[in-house]
Design goal:
Layout (H helix, E strand, L loop, with lengths): L2 H37 L2 H8 L3 H7 L3 H24 L6 H12 L2 H13 L3 H26 L8 H18 L6 H18 L1
Length: about 200
């Protein structure tokens, strides 16, 4: 086998491996949203991803390893998703707050919520989830400040931005059991007007 042929084969194998990992990460997030933490087993994830149990075990030997990797994947996807949406915002306070509220009402938040609840009683999972939540919180706060054009050197502005994030997270929690979009829209628009005065 020539060197070029060997290198191409190595690249193909690496591409297949990356694609298998990506499918497993996506399937894990989807399972968390659809079945919750208890229903997200390695077998269910492998079936959902369309990969063999052997391939899944090659990448992740245990449920803990799989979910830990999915947590990292979820964090990266969340940040990319929010940044992409931010590019489409017109810059008004209402549009920015609606963007952040929609972000927290997404499937990514639902999957993260499943992990947060499970991490409350699972010390191994907690060691992964706590730093992820902190990173995601810092990133969303930084992006909110940037999009709002907020000057955090002014008294109360940092707290107002953080209050916005806490408010929309709470509204997203309320949306988990019933469709709360109409109420959320009213509250978000009202808060955006209040926020604009404090900036």
């Amino acid at each position: 086998m020539s060197t070029d042929t060997g290198q191409r084969e190595v690249r193909r194998q690496a591409d297949r491996s990356r694609e298998t990992r990506r499918k497993l990460m996506q399937a894990t997030v989807e399972c968390l949203v659809e079945h919750g933490w208890a229903g997200t087993t390695t077998t269910v994830v492998a079936e959902r991803a369309g990969v063999s149990r052997g391939a899944q075990l090659h990448h992740f030997r245990t449920r803990g390893e799989l979910v830990a990797a999915a947590v990292e994947h979820l964090g990266a996807e969340s940040v990319l998703d929010l940044k992409e949406r931010a590019r489409q915002v017109n810059g008004s306070t209402v549009a920015v707050v609606e963007l952040i509220a929609d972000f927290y009402a997404s499937d990514l938040f639902t999957a993260a919520l499943e992990l947060w609840v499970a991490a409350r009683t699972d010390p191994e999972l907690r060691t992964v989830v706590v730093p992820l939540e902190a990173r995601l919180g810092r990133e969303t706060h930084r992006l909110a400040v940037e999009l709002l054009g907020a000057d955090e050197t002014k008294p109360g502005v940092r707290e107002s931005v953080q209050l916005t994030l806490d408010l929309v997270r709470g509204l997203a929690l309320a949306d988990q059991l019933t469709d709360d979009r109409r109420r959320r829209t009213r509250i978000v628009r009202h808060w955006a007007r209040v926020l604009e005065e404090s900036l």
